[in-house]
Amino acid sequence: MKIVLDTNVLISGLLNPDGIPGFIVRLVASGYIELVYDYRIIAEYENVMSRPKFHITQHNITDLIEQIKANGQHTSPLPLDLSIPDPEDLKFLEAAVSSGAPYLVTGNLKHFPVPEFKGIKIISPAEFFEHILK
To answer: All domains of the chain, ordered by start, with CATH?
Structure first.
C-alpha cells in the first residue's frame, strides 16, 4: 500500500513510537507501507528533522531518508491549480495525485479544505489506523 505522509505525522511517529503515528512509521519501516515522495517532500523531512528541538541525530536522519528513497516511490508531480490554507502543504497533495496513492495522511486536516480530492482520501493518522485495522 502506498501513501503520502505529511511531515507532522512522520515527526510525531519518530518522537512517540508508541502512538498511532509511531505505528504508521513502523509500517513504513517494515515495508508494509510504501511512502510516495518527491524532492520537496524529502527536503522538508530533512529540514524539520534537523531542528535542534527534536534531538534527531544527523546519522539517523540520513539513514531514514535513505530508507525512504530505497523503499518508497519517487514521483515528479505536476502543479495543481488549487488554493489551500497552507500553500506549502500542496506538495503532499500533488505527490498523491501524480502517483495515484489512495491516501494522504496528515495531522493538519484543516490545511486541506476537502476530505477527498481526485480520489485521494485526506485523512488523519487515527482514520488511517482504523482503515488498516479493517
So the answer is: 2-133 (3.40.50.1010)
